[in-house]
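Quick one, tokens below:
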């Protein structure tokens, strides 16, 4: 397959070609070797949950050995995927909570509370007293409550109270208000083990509950605590794509998800002592760049460049310019090991829960974080002399990132009257037709970045504001879509007018995978601000992830659906089609219960049409698609105007 068919990213195309010439393997090659992929797996109809199996449903064998039917098996597999995604996000959230608490207690001295305004706001929300108390004292109480959310024996997630009241009532009525994150994940595994829950609707109901424990629990806590600890993002510029690598500096790639380590590496790379060491080995400086969600975290808070997204991780090493790649958790391909072995790159794992065979491990010690980061930077500096041939694609784009809920609020309303009112007004008057979250991964089954960027272009052309997270953000940024100058040229006239007035691009980069919770908070604020219905399901909004890879994307999709949104995935990445009942419930029936639903469409232009139709239907239901009535002034009106 030609490089162009594999990726729409021109820098990636160059590197794919070079890797092929060098006989090196990457994810696209491995996908080809996997073809044809298992049809049973694609349909979600295989089960290997117990030792009587593995079983698969066929025309001949319509039941597993235990008697499980296709609906049970497909629903169970779906639940397990969602629960695994929840576990990943939420374990990230728990790690942040642990470091947050340690920092507050002074046990992790290299971390300090950066955003006290946000700390105070969260403390109030949690019922923690703030008056006449020291910042760290408040933070200890907040940290303890946050950490308890993962395993508390009683009660429900406190963050779920951020949802509009009718949504909370609906969750209560339906019995899916999320309890402790660990409990929901554990119950998911229990229910889906052999001989337990055999009612597909009941299984899918729990998929809602466990997903909500992520969106309105673990992942939301991760975002909140990261903002308080590392600073709430505000819009700033950065550069994106492999052209950010430097041929005369020590290049360090930070890859994965948790900013706990990458924040420290970024700081250590600017340390005078480290820079002096770099000079000694003949490098002009130390260049830190990110891949995947760690990259989003760093660009949003520090303007640190992004080298690429999920499918770029192996290609970046193949430039020969990377002295060290430090990885933590999630979306780290084992294939990195073999690519790194072809170059001088030192691949280093840093999370004790995520090691790779034969790969160096430097344990991230939060009580001594800066020292650990310096050790890693020194390893990179020491490796500079081992560089061989280097080829860095020249392509890079200027991007704007950092659209947290707080920054959107501020940009719309100003510091003293921060408000979503202008956004609501412009949705109501039709200048902005609606809002769509374009999120998620890059999957080698489709040309890299193509569906995210095509969909985004279609949406902004049709005056729909796009909020983006994860690798989709990086896809958009690589094509200039998060840069106001370039993107506004592609934007419909009325959305453009609003964006130019406020000074924002039509595609707002909101952060990493866990930061999808910023979208939930923003949607809740749209409802609270008024004029767009009473519940999240009334809003003219949708979500889309056409290049989904990770189980985390399934969890995100499910919590958006359970929160009342339409969520569109590509058909190829939804392993549910083996069961008509499960498919019908997730695409239709669930909407009657919760107001949201799943849909599939692999073609990004058709997906945009589907989303636009949905948004217009929501606008109709809200009564905001009425043509403005022509008002003829009579004498009383004229007099009233004159008095004014
Ligand atoms: Fe087969 Fe039932 Fe065991 Fe699954 S749980 S492997 S369907 S016997
Ligand atoms: S990194 S989950 S490939 S967005 Fe968050 Fe990217 Fe998807 Fe991983």
């Amino acid at each position: 397959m030609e490089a162009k068919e594999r990726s729409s990213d021109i820098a990636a195309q160059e590197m794919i070609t070079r890797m092929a010439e060098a006989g090196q393997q990457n994810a696209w090659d491995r996908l080809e070797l996997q073809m044809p992929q298992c049809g049973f797996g694609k349909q979600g109809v295989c089960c290997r949950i117990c030792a009587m199996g593995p079983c698969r449903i066929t025309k001949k064998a319509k039941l597993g050995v235990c008697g499980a039917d296709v609906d049970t098996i497909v629903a169970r597999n779906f639940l397990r995927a969602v629960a695994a995604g929840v576990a990943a996000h939420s374990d990230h959230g728990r790690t942040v909570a642990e470091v947050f608490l340690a920092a507050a207690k002074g046990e992790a001295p290299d971390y300090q509370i950066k955003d006290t305004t946000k700390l105070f706001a969260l403390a109030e929300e949690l019922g923690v007293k703030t008056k006449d108390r020291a910042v760290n004292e408040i933070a200890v109480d907040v940290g303890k409550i946050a950490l308890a959310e993962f395993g508390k024996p009683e009660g429900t997630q406190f963050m779920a109270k951020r949802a509009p009241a009718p949504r909370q009532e609906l969750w209560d009525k339906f019995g899916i208000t999320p309890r402790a994150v660990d409990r929901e994940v554990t119950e998911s595994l229990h229910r889906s083990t052999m001989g337990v829950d055999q009612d597909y609707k009941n299984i899918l109901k729990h998929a809602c509950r466990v997903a909500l424990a992520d969106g309105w629990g673990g992942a939301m806590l991760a975002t909140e605590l990261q903002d308080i600890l590392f600073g709430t993002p505000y819009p700033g510029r950065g550069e994106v794509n492999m052209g950010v690598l430097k041929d005369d500096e020590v290049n360090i790639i930070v890859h994965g998800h948790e900013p706990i380590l990458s924040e420290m590496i970024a700081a250590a790379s600017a340390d005078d002592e480290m820079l002096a060491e770099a000079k000694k080995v003949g490098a002009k400086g130390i260049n830190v760049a990110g891949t995947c969600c760690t990259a989003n975290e760093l660009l949003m808070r520090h303007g640190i460049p992004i080298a690429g997204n999920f499918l770029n991780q192996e290609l970046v090493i193949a430039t020969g310019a990377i002295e060290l790649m430090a990885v933590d958790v999630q979306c780290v391909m084992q294939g990195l090991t073999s690519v790194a072995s072809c170059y001088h790159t030192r691949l280093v794992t840093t999370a004790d829960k995520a090691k790779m065979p034969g790969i160096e491990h430097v344990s991230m010690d939060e009580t001594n974080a800066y020292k650990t980061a310096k050790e890693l930077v020194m390893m990179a500096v020491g490796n500079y002399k081992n560089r061989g041939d280097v080829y860095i694609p020249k392509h890079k784009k200027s991007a704007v990132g950092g659209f947290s809920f707080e920054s959107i609020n501020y940009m719309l309303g100003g510091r003293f009257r921060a408000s979503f009112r202008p956004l609501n007004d412009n949705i109501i008057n039709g200048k902005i037709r609606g809002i769509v979250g374009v999120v998620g991964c890059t999957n080698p089954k489709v040309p890299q970045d193509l569906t995210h960027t095509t969909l985004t272009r279609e949406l902004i052309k049709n005056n729909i504001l796009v909020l983006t997270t994860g690798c989709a953000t990086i896809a958009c940024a690589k094509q200039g879509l998060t840069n106001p100058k370039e993107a506004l040229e592609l934007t419909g006239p009325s959305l453009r007018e609003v964006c130019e007035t406020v000074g924002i691009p039509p595609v707002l980069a909101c952060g990493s995978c866990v930061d999808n919770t910023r979208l939930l908070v923003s949607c809740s604020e749209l409802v609270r601000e008024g004029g767009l219905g009473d519940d999240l399901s009334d809003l003219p909004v949708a979500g889309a992830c056409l290049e989904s890879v990770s189980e985390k994307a399934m969890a995100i999709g499910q919590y958006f659906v359970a929160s009342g949104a339409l969520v569109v995935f590509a058909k190829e990445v939804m392993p549910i089609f083996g069961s008509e009942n499960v498919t019908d419930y997730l695409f239709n029936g669930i909407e009657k219960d919760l107001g949201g639903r799943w849909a599939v469409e692999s073609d990004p232009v058709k997906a945009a049409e589907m989303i636009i139709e949905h948004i217009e239907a929501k606008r109709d239901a809200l009564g905001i698609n009425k043509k403005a009535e022509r008002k003829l002034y009579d004498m009383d009106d004229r007099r009233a105007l004159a008095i004014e």
